[in-house]
Fold:
Amino acid sequence: MAVDNTKTLADWQAKAASLSFETRAFINGEFVAAVAGSTLTSINPATGSVLAEVASCDALDAERATQAARATFESGVWSRCHPSKRKRVLLRLADLVETHRDELALLDTLDMGKPISSSLGDLAGTVVCLRYQAECIDKLYGEVAPTGENALGLVLREPMGVVAAIVPWNFPLMMTSWKIAPALAAGNSVILKPSEKSPLSALRLAHLAQEAGIPDGVFQVLPGYGHTVGKALALSMQVDCLAFTGSTAVGKQLMQYAGQSNLKRVFLECGGKSPNIVFADCQHLDAVAQSAAEAIFHNQGEVCIAGSRLLVENSIRKDFVARVVKAAEHMQPGDPLDPGSFMGAMVDEAQYLRVLDYIRQGKSEGATLTLEGEANHSQGYFLSPTIFDDLTPDMRIGREEIFGPVLSVFGFDSEEQAIALANDSDFGLAAGVWSQDIDRIMRVSRRLQSGQVYVNNWAGIDQTVPFGGVKQSGNGRDKSLHAQEKYCEVKTVWMSLSV
Ligand code: NAD
Structure:
């Protein structure tokens, strides 16, 4: 789906002014207030204005939703229906999302501050994901084991049951699709818990899911806080699988909740501190510098695979960093509704202050401040790019996930040193290698501890390849056929045959 950039700032402002928001939870086919009547306030971080009061669910709502999910799963209305039916319904959902793409993109932009052009890109990815996973439904086969002739060993894949998908705010709808599309395609009942910072598009999606024909109780949406409804889902004995995207700290908590309850499967897509390695032999340094700047400053740096550690061979480092600074200077934050804005607002005050704190930390740790970002909160929470050079491995700004527009640059003198620096991290989500030497590219790619390696590009991925991390960046894979595998249990049926 090509992204339509024909709308102007005025068009988007007019559309935003005419929007109405769904604010209720979606439980068992009905839009309802939270049982306790609690709400949370959704704020537009670009203006500070209140968008809506949204239902804030807790354990009582989780109980209702998990009961409905369990009942519909056991009924077989979705879990055992003909695969071609699930495929038809999910393809219809993809069509509806595509039809409402401007509205859904706008909801994400208003809710969490990302530029509208970026939200439109997310919507394109969301539609592709829904279609891809739907198309796989009637193309995945089970297995026949290589037994002796007196037996038939069948390996069946069956849906797990009730999947709780807990997602973050940085790509609200796209991250949602990466979870719910394969989980629904495999026949599970799914409860979605969007981030408390970006619930609006998920609630609109619930309307579209109903219109597409997903049966009541098979897809439900519970907005609310992590420590209330998120925790209740994670501890529920009715939930068979947690599909999580978010921080490493919360991912660790979810594993504990699973251990304290029913040993539910826990799939985690967590944080990163991804190394982007530039060797001196690489060509077209301006283009590489532009890519390195986009790798960290896209989406205000609020990206799990942000290329937040730039490792540059010392013989070209000063020259290369100057080019990155030049590229970054053109990446200023602007009104998220302006299609020309490359960066928007930080998601909220807490995230804005957290990033500023890291910038102070970087200065006090002694890194060289090569580009100091401007901080502006006269209306919303805006931060422009900051670049530190001369990092040493012990500095916190080079080790911890900042989740904001702050780049840390390290120098290296040898391939071996570059690999050691890159792998010296708790995380292992993404890594980049820039070089013209194919032998070096293969050597380095193989040794990087990372879920994905980008060679002479950054973030060049699509629906056909799996996505996920190693080490404390998580486990399990989203996207591709591997995503459906993780929402299925493997069952062996062994039949004795008379010969
Ligand atoms: P977060 O961990 O604070 O929250 C993620 C989700 O978990 C939210 O819905 C939140 O309400 C919920 N949650 C929080 N505490 C919980 C608890 N105790 N029990 C159950 N649920 C709980 O993360 P965030 O701030 O929303 O998102 C940013 C993080 O997400 C970053 O670390 C980023 O790297 C990561 N992320 C990873 C990927 C990936 O694919 N690896 C993609 C996007 C974002």
User: Anything to note?
Assistant: The chain has a mean pLDDT of 97. The radius of gyration is 23 Å.
